[in-house]
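Note to self: the last two entries modelled the partners one at a time, which told us nothing about the interface. This time every component goes in together.
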Amino acid sequence: MWHKGTLSVTGTCPVTANHIKVALVGQPNVGKSMLINSISNSHLHVGNFTGVTVEKSEVLFDYKAYHFTVVDLPGTYAFTDYTIEERVTKEYLCAESYDMIINVVDSTNLEKNLQLTSELMSLGKKMVIALNMSDEAQKEGIEIDAVYLTQLLGIPAVKVSAVTKMGVDELIDVVVATYEQEHQESKLIFSEPVEEEISHIVEYLQKHHYESDNSYRNIAINLLKNNQQTYEVLHDNPVWTELQPILIEASRHIELHHDSNDLKEAFAEEYYAFNRGIIAETVSTLKDDVQELTLTEKIDNVLIHPFLGLPIFLFFMWGLFQLTFEIGSIPMEWIDGFFIWLGDTIGATIANDEIRSLVVEGIIAGVGAVVLFVPNIIILFIGIALLEATGYMSRVAFLLDGFFHKFGLHGQSFIPLVTGFGCSIPAYMSARILKNDRDRLLTLFIIGFMSCGARLPVYVLFAGAFFSQEMAGNVLFVIYMAGVLIGLVAAKVLKMTAFKGADEPFVMEMPKYRLPSFKLIWHTVATKTWMYLKKAGTFIAAASMLVWFLSNYPHHEALEAHYSTKIALAAPSELKSLENERDSALLEASYLGQVGKFIQPVFDPIGMDWKMSVALQTGLAAKEVVVSTLGVLYALGADVDEQSESLANVLRNNISFASAVAFIVVIMTYLPCLAASIVFTREAGGIRYFFYLFIFTTLVAYSLAFVAYRVTLALTG
Amino acid sequence: MKINTSGPLKQRLISLGIMKDVTIRVLAHTAAKGTLEIKVGKMQIALRAEEARLIEVDDVA
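The predicted structure of the combined assembly is written out below.
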């Protein structure tokens, strides 16, 4: 799933009776989205790194007599505004209406996870704790007494595993039971000084019969924690004038007790003390091997080795592109053969010349040219899915932070940038993990230089056409790396000019390595591949028809008649070249030809013929269209006798090497597709950013293509 | 153990479990020692040397 929008699984109406609205909350990377997937058979995007979910998404499903709406919120370590996604969660929990909370925690690190749980307790909502990854905890020898934990916290805790679906039904049963019961006050206990101040405030509120949905105790806790929402509500109330001095005195008391001038720190310590007590009572660890290295640490010793780490990463990337080309090219012949066969077979059944041309040379040639690259796309997607699911992604961010830092980028920018190799749209979204707006904008501007999956077909086509089979994989690797380098240099330039400012801190959790399940990888890849095919069948097919129409009309009777008489008089040996001449003359006279000729002067300096410039224009709609346009344009001009001739061969015979290099450079750097540009504009926060992006990418693309063309021309003569 | 900074960064470090009385172990660093990997409790955290410098610790082992 690329976007995480509203997703309806059963399509039930949310405003009926017996409806439970549940907010799913937890720290990052504890498996919230995966748990929803297990409960409702939905397919939210999951991965093993912090910040997979950056937007809230709703899932609807029915269970027994209830309709459920589960809101999957971005992971958050604590109630802070550190990043945009954390703000989303905080604002939702404090301001939106929902019936209860499922707090998802990582059973293998309960101590850290309970910190957020303690904060959630003072919201005064019904809550259930899902002890996720119970299977993993068991393997690590961690035993949690869920019954005792339930008693101590006053919150039902259920052991579950989103991966194996263990305990998922029980969880929902407990959620329903909790929903039906009265709300229980949480059993959170603080140190004596804090308890003292809480009771002062509670007494005061009782005296004035202050009206509120939340309990006085929770209000007192939230006030002491400097919770903004609670402040805002109370600020306009008459009790405020007398309450304020009490609060100031209370804060001073607590700060003194904790030897800190920071109430949030004081409360973190309070929670930590409480949670350590809970852990001591309910968690027993069989293997007490604190000194022994965990598996993750052992793997890290190799993968983030100071000197070997980066070479290993580059080797992985190189290997991925080798595989993409080598394995990907095996089924290509079959797919190519299939579409030629399809074109012939269907073409033979259509009597009308026009319609046959539309179907065979328009739709089938265009869609076929795009579908041809499905095997390459699948391999690339598998690579990205593995990177996301294993936990390696955060390691690479760690390795590259120093390098990125030199170019004015944040190490965490790596995550959106890598996502950009798949598709720019989720990449723009995932830039939300960057705390600072300047870093985020900077990253947004260069994501487009990371070549997305839709551009892969263009590269594979050109690499296959202009390089030997053995070199093509290396060429792909070089193209992608060159894109990254261009992106980095562009980042540096932007950082020195448009986005000047201090560097942001880099603090990031490194998740445990996990062996991704085959099912998960298969599902991620299958979904993305299916979307690619669907796009080929709908959007690309429509675009191909449009390109076909624009390149076949208007009809030039005079031109056709002129060639007809010529061909009739010609000797058989001249026949073929005359037919080709006629076809290209007709193509040039078409609407598309006219447009192409009109804009030709602009593209001439970078070595593009008019067909290539038209293909680039159509690529603004979607990058796959570049290939389908080339397919249609060259199929029309192609030799009728040699229909088996592949597009790659046609390109090799019609385009100079220097032009091909310049073409690839433009594809690498110019404006992302329409859909991505829209998301970019939304994420950047205004239409003006779109114009900046347009000007920026156009300048980069044009000047680099110019240099590439001239240099290659000089080198190849 | 003390954090010598304030504002959002301090909140972030605290919410990652870096606070009084915890043990921090340095697991790895990059070639230029610009970025470190530390372990707090059971969690591994990556941070830059500049941020690491703000965390005041006592040597325990």
